[in-house]
Each structure stands twice: as C-alpha cells, then as structure tokens.
C-alpha cells in the first residue's frame, strides 16, 4: 500500500511536463491567415485610435473634466488595455508557424484578460449609476457625484477587478498538465485550459462558474435597474425631442451592454458546458474585439460635447503646426 502511494506520487510529480501551449487561433490556409491578419490589424488600429482620442480629449480639454467624461476616459483606456491582452498575440499567431505561448505567458494573459473584463463589468454599472443620478437626481448630482468621489469609485473598480481572479488562477496553475498542449482558441481561456488538465477539477470549475455568475448577474441587473429608472424619468420629459434623444442614448448604451453581457453569459456562466470551439471563438471575439471597437462610437463620439472638444483640439493642432 505504501509502495503503491509512493509510485502514484512519483508518477504525478512527473506529470506537469507542459512548458508551453499551442493556440490554434483560426486554423485555415495561409492566404486566409494573411487576410485575417490584415482585417484584425485594421480593427485593432481603429480601436486604439478611437479610444485613444477619447482619452486625449478628456485629458486636454478642461471644460469636460466632469464625472461623466472622467468615466468615459477611464472606460476607453480600459478598452485599450483590454484588447492589448489578446489581439497582439492573435496577430502574431496569424503569421506564425508554431503558434506557441509559454506556460507563464498563457496564465499571465488569462489573468490580465479576466481582470480587464471584470473591471469593465464594474465600470459599466458605475457609468449607468452616473447617468441615473444626472437624469433622475439632477439637483443633487453635483454634490453626490463629485470628482473626488468619482475618482475613488473608478480606482475601486480597477483594484477590485484585479483582485477577483488571482486565487482561482493560482489553483488552475497547480493542476497537472501532461499533454496534449493544444488549445483550440486564440486566447488562454479557462474552459480549454481545464480540459487539458490530466485530472478532473470539478471544484475549480464550479468555483470559477459561481464567481463569474455572481459578477455578471449582479452588475448586469444593477445596470438594468439604473436604466429602467432613467427611462421612466425620461417618459416624464415634456419635450418630444428630449425624449427621443434620451431614448436614443439609453437604447445605444443598452445595446452595447446587452452584447457584452450576453456573450459573457454564454461563455462563462458555464465555462465547460461543451460549447463548440468555433462558437467559443466567435463569442469571445464579440466581447473582446468588437465591443471595444464600437464603444467609442456609442458612448462618446456621438456626444455633442465630445465632438466639440475634438474639433477644438484639431483646430489647436492645425494652428500650432502652421506656426
């Protein structure tokens, strides 16, 4: 009996031999890989430019140093960080023959990808709450949502987002990975990673699913409640033009929120539910690449004050260049 347990220990000690993973990304012909590289490169650049413009405008134009625009600037900066956790490596893999990622780099990507996503699920409710206060409590808004409080709440979102997943990720790194080491995805995701473990880990799977469910559902229903109160207040606005503008804004915001949260629910409420790899990739692309691309258009660049600030900075740039 003692000898048997000793042999098991020796076997398990030699199991964790995987030092790198292969991210298959989108397996297809070389020509299609190059085409995808060009397509996602353009999308990546547009995302950086759009979100970067918002960050710069809010930073440079002191007239819009208000809680709403501080939140938008942080949100745009988060989107820049978010896509940088996945897209550069995905672009590299399109042109790579090996498509490998080291064990450490894979779990670092996992950590930052999930931390950024969690921070976004905290920032979106804060932005919805800010709109609720501005529309439903306009007289008390300046005293409740002061700039120092706004900055503290934003910092809390970032810190909390980065503290949610270190423990689950640590336990996943302690699982034995003895091969195969091929992940049919373009990002190190918990579902495919847990599937590669040599031993089942139902406790880790359940804890990840519960944690994701709590974060997603609590923040989603908070956003839904905030916008419900906003829309109810909008219905009492006497001006038809004002109602249309408010409905358009809230509808656009809810569309983006629904896209982001809907894809998250499909992927992470039950991460090992057996979704086909192709569906996992498409769904992950929607919330990790498509929403950061369209968010500047939805949240900021349609805004009158933001467009005026952009024009002002463009004019100042042209004047400085002419001098």
Automatic annotation (TrEMBL):
This is Olfactory receptor. Putative odorant or sperm cell receptor. One of its GO terms (molecular function) is G protein-coupled receptor activity. PROSITE patterns: G_PROTEIN_RECEP_F1_1 (PS00237), G_PROTEIN_RECEP_F1_2 (PS50262). Belongs to the G-protein coupled receptor 1 family. One of its GO terms (cellular component) is plasma membrane. PANTHER family: G-PROTEIN COUPLED RECEPTOR, OLFACTORY RECEPTOR. Gene3D superfamilies: Rhodopsin 7-helix transmembrane proteins. Keywords: Cell membrane, Disulfide bond, G-protein coupled receptor, Glycoprotein, Membrane, Olfaction, Receptor, Sensory transduction, Transducer, Transmembrane, Transmembrane helix. InterPro entries: GPCR_Rhodpsn, GPCR_Rhodpsn_7TM, Olfact_rcpt, Olfactory_GPCR1. The chain crosses the membrane at residues 34-57, 69-87, 107-129, 149-172, 210-234, 246-270, 282-301. It is a multi-pass membrane protein. Residues 50-299 form the G-protein coupled receptors family 1 profile domain. It is found in: Cell membrane.
């Amino acid at each position: 009996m003692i000898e048997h347990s000793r042999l098991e220990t020796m076997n398990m000690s030699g199991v964790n031999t995987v030092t790198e993973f292969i991210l298959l990304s989108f397996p297809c012909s070389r020509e299609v890989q190059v085409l995808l590289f060009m397509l996602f490169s353009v999308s990546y650049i547009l995302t950086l430019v759009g979100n970067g413009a918002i960050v710069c405008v809010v930073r440079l134009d002191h007239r819009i140093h208000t809680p709403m625009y501080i939140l938008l600037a942080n949100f745009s900066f988060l989107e820049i960080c978010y896509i940088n956790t996945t897209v550069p490596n995905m672009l590299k893999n399109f042109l790579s023959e090996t498509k490998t990622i080291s064990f450490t780099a894979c779990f670092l990507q996992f950590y930052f990808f999930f931390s950024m996503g969690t921070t976004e699920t905290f920032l979106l409710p804060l932005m919805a709450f800010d709109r609720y206060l501005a529309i439903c409590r306009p007289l008390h808004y300046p005293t409740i949502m002061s700039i120092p409080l706004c900055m503290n709440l934003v910092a809390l979102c970032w810190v909390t987002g980065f503290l949610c997943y270190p423990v689950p990720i640590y336990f996943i790194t302690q699982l034995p990975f003895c091969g195969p080491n091929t992940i049919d995805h373009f990002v190190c995701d918990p579902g495919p990673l847990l599937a590669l473990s040599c031993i089942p880990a139902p406790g880790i799977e359940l804890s990840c699913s519960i944690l994701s469910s709590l974060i997603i559902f609590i923040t989603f229903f908070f956003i839904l409640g905030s916008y419900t109160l906003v829309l109810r207040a909008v219905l009492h606005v006497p001006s038809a033009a004002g109602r249309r503008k408010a409905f358009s804004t809230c509808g656009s915001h809810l569309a983006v929120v629904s896209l982001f949260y809907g894809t998250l629910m499909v992927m992470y409420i039950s991460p090992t539910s057996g979704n086909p790899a192709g569906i996992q990739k498409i769904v992950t692309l929607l919330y990790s690449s498509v929403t950061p691309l369209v968010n500047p258009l939805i949240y900021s660049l349609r805004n009158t004050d933001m467009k005026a600030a952009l024009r002002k900075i463009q004019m100042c740039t042209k004047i400085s260049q002419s001098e």
